[in-house]
Amino acid sequence: MSSGKPLLVVLGATGTQGGSVLAHFLSLSSSPYALRGVTRSPTSSKAAALAARGVEMVAGDFDDPTSLDTAFKGASAIYSVTDYWNPMADPSQHQKAAAAGQSIGLFIGEYETQQNKNIIDAPAGVDGLERFVFSSLPDTNKLSGGKYTHIFQFDSKGKAEEYGRVTYPKLWEKTSVFYAPFYLENYFGPLGALFRPKLNKSTGSLTLAIAEPLASTPLPWFTAAGDTGELVHALLQVAPGKKLIGIRELLSPRRLAELFAEALKKDIEFVDSNPGPNSGNPGLSKGLLDLVGWCVEFGYDGAKVDKNIVTPENLGVPVALGSVKEWFERQEWEQVLQSD
Ligand SMILES: NC(=O)c1ccc[n+]([C@@H]2O[C@H](COP(=O)([O-])OP(=O)(O)OC[C@H]3O[C@@H](n4cnc5c(N)ncnc54)[C@H](OP(=O)(O)O)[C@@H]3O)[C@@H](O)[C@H]2O)c1
């Protein structure tokens, strides 16, 4: 690069995690890296906005290995993240899953694993690559000995991580793994509806209807848009080989809701919603119930059986993430509470 700085290539540049990585380095008075973002649509408005801030935006598609070879040329460091959820909403993927006789969850999981293999294969051949940061999650099926079989969005990434470690030991010497916790941003969306208290419009107080064991299961939380960049920068500053869970706080949905109520200065009451989360979609419900069981037994990150997991305070460089309550205080909740 003409700046003379080493080049950081960021996948998912227009998305939440990758966007956070770029926003973090753009916010520094002097970024240690020249920045390149990868997107399927370099002319989109998000890509153009990043280009206007000095990011070199290039075309690349996880389904097209040749495009990744080109996108990674000259990289000193790569941040890799793939997208399980948007293909789930794509009707053509549902048709393909039906034609393959697979559940949509498993089908998209296998698709995401293949995308990650394409990504891993490409940097294995990059001359001069010093660091690879791979956004992953644990292979819950394998680690639980087949007890939890429906957490496809975790296993898809964990399987690819294992592929990289076994297939490319030299690349894996330069690799650190990043586990994203539950996004606090989920509190705004449909998944958040499971955790988010509802506003009683006549009394102004909050109620959360939630069942055990979900209500009291400790879950790790962070803001994906706000924290990913700082955490990835920290990983790039320490020796590779780390597996970082990027946690702000470990909180049960019940405690999370209490903090939400404190931030909004509202009263809250809890109602037992037994028989538990039931979306009417058996696949999703099984996945959610497996996820709760997994978190109770193994921890979200599998840290009860994987002793390689580190938290930000044990990384060896200062990481200053704010509190969950602060994040709640900074958001605008009126519209989402009124629309429930
Ligand atoms: N929600 C949670 O609580 C949570 C927790 C932990 C982990 N996660 C994981 O986070 C991942 C999603 O990350 P995110 O939130 O950053 O996603 P996001 O905001 O939805 O963005 C997706 C990004 O991926 C890019 N992308 C998608 N398909 C692509 C392809 N075929 N080729 C190239 N680029 C592609 C998109 O770029 P363009 O459209 O510009 O090409 C976009 O930048 C999921 O896999 C999920 O499992 C989520």
UniProtKB/TrEMBL annotation:
One GO term describing the cellular component: nucleus
InterPro entries: NAD(P)-bd_dom_sf, NmrA-like, NmrA-like_oxidored
SUPFAM superfamilies attached to this UniProt entry: NAD(P)-binding Rossmann-fold domains
Domain NmrA-like: 7-271
UniProt keyword annotation of NADP present: yes
Gene3D superfamilies for the chain: NAD(P)-binding Rossmann-like Domain (3.40.50.720), UDP-galactose 4-epimerase, domain 1 (3.90.25.10)
Alphabetical UniProt keywords: NADP
Pfam families for the chain: NmrA (PF05368)
Family: Belongs to the NmrA-type oxidoreductase family.
PANTHER family: NITROGEN METABOLITE REPRESSION PROTEIN NMRA FAMILY MEMBER, NMRA-LIKE DOMAIN-CONTAINING PROTEIN
Name recorded for this polypeptide: NmrA-like domain-containing protein
Organism: Cylindrodendrum hubeiense
